[in-house]
């Protein structure tokens, strides 16, 4: 890899958003340099210049250009390094359909009806892609903030936060398409959602509940994801996240 196409990730070890990028790069087998940022006490000039609007990690630098926002970065990675695909694609099925359309044209003779039919019926996964993006967006909008409702609260507010968080998890569980969100294969929604699971242990400790009891299917999905190399090496030890959040709670006078 030349200096030019170096892949650099501005990272923070406990950030579930940065974990998404690490998983996506690992799924594609792309080597990268992770640069740890001190997001609380001193962000680097590189981070501030690369993400001047939000000033947040993750930022991916590729060809020296910054890409911000984790879901956008994961989509970028999926486009630049298409194999294995994270978003559903039907390129093989489309190639097969074109082969048989060509066969009809050559053997049966050109017939507008056939050609038109094949063109219109070419399998596309555009719908499946929208569904994957819909659920990734749901995770983005609900899961992190839902967790904050637990670890940033005490008393009644914490109880309410726990109830709302479990409801979010149950909705998500209902969207599981099979072993993974995309069906049989680990894909885009899995990449976006699984990093948040590294914070679940902390939520369980603060909230006094078990994700497994409330959402056994989701819990089994977490276990399946953790068996993947890309996930196992990108997620931190949940007890470290717990300690980190305990420190945060103390700093904010919650404990
Ligand atoms: N929507 C952003 C969220 C990124 C984010 O919240 N990053 C946090 C770390 S988990 C951060 O950099 N916080 C620093 C700050 O808020 O100043 C994404 O998906 O990339």
From TrEMBL:
PROSITE patterns hit by this protein: GST_CTER, GST_NTER
EC numbers, comma separated: 2.5.1.18
Entry GO MF terms: glutathione transferase activity
Residues in GST C-terminal domain copies: 125-244
Keyword annotations from UniProtKB, A to Z: Transferase
Catalytic activity: RX + glutathione = an S-substituted glutathione + a halide anion + H(+)
GO terms classed as biological process: glutathione metabolic process
GO cellular component: cytoplasm
Key word Zinc present: no
Gene3D superfamilies recorded: 1.20.1050.10, Glutaredoxin
Pfam families, per database record: GST_C_2, GST_N
All residue ranges annotated as the GST N-terminal domain in the record: 5-85
Cross-referenced SUPFAM superfamilies: GST C-terminal domain-like (SSF47616), Thioredoxin-like (SSF52833)
PANTHER family: GLUTATHIONE S-TRANSFERASE, GLUTATHIONE S-TRANSFERASE, GST, SUPERFAMILY, GST DOMAIN CONTAINING
Protein name, entry field: glutathione transferase
Organism: Stephania yunnanensis
């Amino acid at each position: 890899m030349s200096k030019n196409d170096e892949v650099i990730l501005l990272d923070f070890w406990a950030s579930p958003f940065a974990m998404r990028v690490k998983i996506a790069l690992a799924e594609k087998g792309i080597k990268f340099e992770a640069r740890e940022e001190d997001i609380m006490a001193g962000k680097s000039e590189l981070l501030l210049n690369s993400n001047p609007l939000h000033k947040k990690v993750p930022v991916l630098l590729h060809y020296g250009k910054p890409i911000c926002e984790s879901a956008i970065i994961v989509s970028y990675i999926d486009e630049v390094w298409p194999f294995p695909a994270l978003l559903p694609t039907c390129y093989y099925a489309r190639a097969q359909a074109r082969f048989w359309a060509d066969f009809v044209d050559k053997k049966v003779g050109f017939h507008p009806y056939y050609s038109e039919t094949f063109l219109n019926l070419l399998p596309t996964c555009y719908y499946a892609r929208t569904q994957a993006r819909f659920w990734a967006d749901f995770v983005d909008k609900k899961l992190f903030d839902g967790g904050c409702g637990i670890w940033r609260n005490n008393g009644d507010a914490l109880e309410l936060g726990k109830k709302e968080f479990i409801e979010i998890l149950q909705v998500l569980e209902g969207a599981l398409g099979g072993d993974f969100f995309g069906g049989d294969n680990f894909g885009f929604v899995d990449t976006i959602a699984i990093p948040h699971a590294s914070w679940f242990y902390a939520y369980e400790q603060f909230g006094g509940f078990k994700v497994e009891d409330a959402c056994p299917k989701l819990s089994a999905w977490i276990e399946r994801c953790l068996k993947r190399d890309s996930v196992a090496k990108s997620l931190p030890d949940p007890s470290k996240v717990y300690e980190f959040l305990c420190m945060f709670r103390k700093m904010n006078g919650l404990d």
